[in-house]
Amino acid sequence: MRAKIRDTEIFFDVEGAGLVPEGDQMREKPVAFLLHGGPGADHTSYKPTFSAIAHHLQLVYIDHRGQGRSARGDRSTYTLDNNVEDLEALRQYLGLAKIVVVGGSYGGMVAMAYAARYPQNVAYLIVYATAAHCGFLDRAKAILAMRGTPEQQQMADRLWKAEFETEAQLAEYFQVMAPLYSQKPQTAEGAAGRGRTIFSVDAINAAFGGFLRTFDLRPELPNITAPTLVLGARHDWICAPEFSEEIAQLIPGAVLRIFETSGHLMRSDAPAELLGAIVGFVTGIDDSAVENTVIEHPE
Question: How far is CA 57 from the centre of its chain?
Fold first, then answer.
């Protein structure tokens, strides 16, 4: 499905009914916006893993502007600020009241900015494997220097310099860097997942060559009023766990949890724990009730 909002067209997909029978009444499930990382990737990395929680939440998968199946446009409009305003326009387009906002990596940055700027419209905020300011870049470079192979360090230069020329180069980047992103060995299913992704070099170049070098959400985080869950990964090379700790300290009342055996791709390394934590935080349902239904989907 596509929504023509503001100056663009945003692709979104909905999984799970919003109203479900419960005795002699219909129960309305919370609506969760799922915000993918990158930038330059799309929502498909959430599928099919997140399908396991569609029984508890109505899921709205979203491709950020200029990415995935959303419309392409002027690269200069591919900014965090526009991603935030697109979310608010989509919420209004769908006629929704308060929403649950879930974002990982870059999606977590968008989620935090949205929750800070539209606190009245957020019921719950969940962010994972993310950072609130540009300092994550220098820290990632330092970690890469310690952990990365010569090939990975050379490949990462394209990211730091924002010099991806083709979608094939971007796909190659994720293939070569996969052992750093995930603690699990690469699998055929992980390769298939990357094959399903529609990459956008303009989006990733615009971010890493532009606003990600200077952004700082820390002054805005105290404006967040929604109950907030912050999840970090001990072995995350690009959004190191200290950035999750910092976020939790700045958001009033935030709950922090660090996954000790996970890398950046928490939905691959610890899918059951990730989804159990999300549903448990929003609904109060015991984590184990969710964990038993999770489909593992390595990246």
Answer: 17
| 8 A C-beta contact, residue 44 and residue 197 | yes
CA 17/CA 87 separation, integer angstroms: 21
What single DSSP character describes residue 21?
Answer: E
- pLDDT tens for 212-227 read 999 999 999 999 999 9
- The neighbour count for residue 103, using CB atoms within 10 Å, is 27
Is residue 64 within 8 A of residue 110, CB to CB? The reply is yes
Contact 287, 276 (CB under 8 A): yes
Which pair of structure tokens corresponds to residue 106? 């870059």
**Phi, psi dihedral angles at 20 (to 5 degrees):** -130, 145
d(CA 265, CA 182): 5
Count Cα neighbours of 249 within 13 Å in the Cβ-side half-sphere.
9
How far is Cα 1 from Cα 5, in angstroms, rounded to an integer? 13
Helices (H) then strands (E): counts for the chain = 11, 10
- Per-residue pLDDT reduced to its tens digit, 46-104: 999 999 999 999 999 999 999 999 999 999 999 999 999 999 999 999 999 999 999 99
Domains of the chain: 2-291 (3.40.50.1820)
Handedness of CA 154, 155, 157, 163 (dihedral sign): positive
* Residue-by-residue DSSP string for 93-149: HTT-SSEEEEEETHHHHHHHHHHHH-GGGEEEEEEES--SBTHHHHHHHHHHHHH--
